[in-house]
């Protein structure tokens, strides 16, 4: 086997049967040399797998009983990413039990025991050095996310209680198509069978979710992506502002971090921005902290309002 990862998984799968294997038998099964088998066994030990060895005539390799559920095979960067991902999810605190952030908090404290032995000290050091700011966010049931994922995969109709923003609760029957995470909120894009149209549902307002077992046919999404459709709805009452900023994209993104903006480099130290805003004042307020030249290409009334404000500022300094 040329693929090392595939070979290691095959070796682990073989050893997890619990019985002993000679080096020659493993070499034959994996189509490698006995020397490669010895090297791969040492790799498994380095990952924390307790492989027992009996040398000499009649010798064998065997995975110690009771340890057939192995630690996660993560490299250093993957272990760090897993910890940081759990810490980020846990920071969206709802202070409720049984929610996604609660599950992330519990998993964050348990991950070390499933890591290879060589990575546990680094994971412990990272946890001890890390603090995350608590961000208030609506609670979401992780089981609901998992059930919806399976229903979407199976093209299965679901029903649930839904409370709208006015507090009205109704039972809904929906063909689920996508789950979307945006601005600390979880959403479901689905075809509402009672309204015969696409709808977006906040998952923190969903309760008593039931998979009906009834299948539905495929549908073409109402936009290029579910995220694009969600943004269209959220920005329906906002104005799109298009501008060019003479700064790096990362600098612009930092200045507009609380706004829904699409940011891309258009030239050296020149960034194109589409941002959706309620009023031109928000744009000026955000860009004032950036300390960079910019030009607004549309809409015209925003351009005129900013020009008038600039004249007032000049007059105030005379």
TrEMBL record:
Listed name of the protein: WYL domain-containing transcriptional regulator
Organism: Nonomuraea terrae
Gene3D superfamilies, sorted: Winged helix-like DNA-binding domain superfamily/Winged helix DNA-binding domain
Family annotation (PANTHER family): PROTEIN PAFB (PTHR34580:SF3), PTHR34580
Pfam family name, one: WYL
Residue ranges occupied by any HTH deoR-type domain in the UniProt entry: 4-69
Gene Ontology MF term list: DNA binding; DNA-binding transcription factor activity
Keywords for the protein's UniProt record, in alphabetical order: DNA-binding, Transcription, Transcription regulation
């Amino acid at each position: 086997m040329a693929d090392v990862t595939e070979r290691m998984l095959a070796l682990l799968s073989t050893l997890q049967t619990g019985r002993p294997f000679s080096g020659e038998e493993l070499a034959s099964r994996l189509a490698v040399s006995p020397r490669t088998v010895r090297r791969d066994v040492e790799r498994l030990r380095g990952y924390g797998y307790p492989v027992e060895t009996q040398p000499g005539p009649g010798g064998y390799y065997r995975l110690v009983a009771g340890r057939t559920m192995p630690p996660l095979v993560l490299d250093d960067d993957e272990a760090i990413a897993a910890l940081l991902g759990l810490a980020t999810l846990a920071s969206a605190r709802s202070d409720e039990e049984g929610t996604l952030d609660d599950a992330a908090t519990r998993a964050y404290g348990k991950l070390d025991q499933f890591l290879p032995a060589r990575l546990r000290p680094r994971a412990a050091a990272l946890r001890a050095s890390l603090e995350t700011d608590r961000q208030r966010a609506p609670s979401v049931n992780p089981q609901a996310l998992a059930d919806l994922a399976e229903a979407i995969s199976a093209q299965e109709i679901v029903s649930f209680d839904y409370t709208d923003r006015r507090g009205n609760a109704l039972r809904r029957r929906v063909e689920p198509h996508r789950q979307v995470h945006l601005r600390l909120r979880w959403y479901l894009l689905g075809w509402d069978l009672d309204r015969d149209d696409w709808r977006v549902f906040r998952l923190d307002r969903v309760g008593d979710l039931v998979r009906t077992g009834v299948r539905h046919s495929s549908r073409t999404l109402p936009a290029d992506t579910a995220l694009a459709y969600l943004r269209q709805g959220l920005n329906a009452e906002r104005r799109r502002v298009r501008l060019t900023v003479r700064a790096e994209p990362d600098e612009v993104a930092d200045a507009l971090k609380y706004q829904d903006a699409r940011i891309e480099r258009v030239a050296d130290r020149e960034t194109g921005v589409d941002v959706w805003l309620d009023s031109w004042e928000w744009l000026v307020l955000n860009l004032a902290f950036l300390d960079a030249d910019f030009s607004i290409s549309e809409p015209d009334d925003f351009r005129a309002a900013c020009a008038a404000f600039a004249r007032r500022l000049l007059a105030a300094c005379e």
